[in-house]
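Hi there,

I know you've been waiting on this one. I reran it after we fixed the sequence typo, so this is the corrected version. Both the input and the resulting structure follow.
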Amino acid sequence: MPNVTITINGREMSVREGVTILDACQAAGIPVPTLCYHPDLTIAGNCRICVVEVEGWKTLQPACATPVSPNMVVRTGSPKVRKARRTTMELLLAAHDSNCPECERNGNCELQTIAEDMGIDMNRFLTSPRPVSVVEASPSVMRDNSKCIMCTRCVRTCDELQSVSVIKPMQRSCDVHIATFEDKGLSNVSCTMCGQCINRCPTGALYEKSEIGEVWAALEDPEKFVVAQTAPAVRVGIAEALGLPTGRNTGQMVAAMRMLGFDRILDTDFTADLTIVEEGNELLSRLKAALVDGRKDIALPMITSCSPGWIKFIEHHFPGLLPNLSSCKSPQQMFGALVKTYLAAKEGIDPSKVVSVSIMPCTAKKYEKDRPEMRSSGYKDVDYVLTTRELARMIRQAGIDFSTLQEEKYDRWMGSSSGAAVIFGATGGVMEAALRTAYEIITGKEVPFRNLDITPVRGMEGIKEATIQLPDAMAPGWEFLKGVPVRVAVAHGLVNARKLMEKVASGEADYHFIEVMACPGGCLGGGGQPIPTNPEVRQKRCQAIYEEDCSLPLRKSHENPEVQLLYAEFLEKPLGHKSHELLHTHYTEREL
């Protein structure tokens, strides 16, 4: 579209025709407050905090929903605008539980920030907030409708980004509230527990179900041996959650956790590497059975299974494709099973005294740990899950100055990892890691360091497709793959997963391997990551993840020495009896 000339606050500028006034203001660095607007979502225009004055127009206009036109003259801070915004904010606050010190989002609340910017310290309207109604909506998500401002960001997130659509505005007038159909609760509908609604809520109406109290109790119990694992995306989110710039803070995170009192601090990336070895071999065994043995019962394409939100989604919406899922557990659950078997034996600890704590970017992990099949160690494999935000809260509670900490290393046995495991935190990372390992298995040749970056599966496009052309020279036993074009696809965000699965179910798609992550951007955009989230924030986290991969001397999962030791001492071989017992599982068809 061509550019048009407009004037904002007396400043003439050229902007692309068709963009909104809000877009033009943001591009020019002119602040305009918003509440219902979010860059990931469609425009709602229902909060009216972003109203501006347009010369010649009778009424104020919402900047988020009003496109620019040639020679438009806009004022964003006129007396009329300031008065309207203040009145709107006072009305919102009158219906809002304003007990900020007890709110999960105190200090990081968009409503609170805008009210402070407007200088609202006394409300001229009679306050009548909705009753405090904290509901344990699911094993992952808590809801307090007394903090809800009906911006509908959560509804649009569930509809547009995740295509799950389990929450809507219910009832009318002063009784209107966000809920599931017939107020069944998120546990009784097809909610995936992904927590994306939490990440886009501007207030404290939605937040994760916290297990901080239980973890503190375990740390303070001298009878307990508390082991923590930290996921790859946490290391690029923890500093952000503590008010510092996004970056790679692995060593400082480990140091902070030692100060909190964890007995062992280990790395989920260890089992990310293990997942690649198991999953890569599973893919190759399926290809061999289908292409060489001619078996018709082999489900292809094989689809990754490490995202619990995605797993619950396919169980509800595409149960016919459950056989296509890799049987591998997620790295979190593999880790939990090994902590209470392999690690407990190595440390000489009674597994009944081991408390397994996961630090995750994901709220769905809280649901996953409670699945009945996740007890292959003879105990509950993972006892507690803390989000990145919860770990940051514990660090603040302990009075630790994160920015001054010296870097420390993970503990041994399950603390070593490769760059391939690190990139699990970004969309396309599991695919890239798997291809690095699978290529070396079937060719018997080392992939040159310079060729390890498989760029076709990287990036923030919703669906990415690539074809990997295998060479003619193959290792013994893999000659049947000589010159085969391996077709792969990557999807992130469940709306994109749905599109891809519809193609697979209809037979339109012809892939060998598919990676799906429930959250936009992959785990780095998980429901437990720091708030706010937007495309720019996710891109910064993604960059930090790939920088860490490139900085590591080891970048292929099967070369992890601790993984090799695990097989030598305990598991014996990939896809062996012990591996199937501890590292693999099955999935369950669920009703919509």
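Quick highlight: The radius of gyration is 25 Å.

Best,
R. S.
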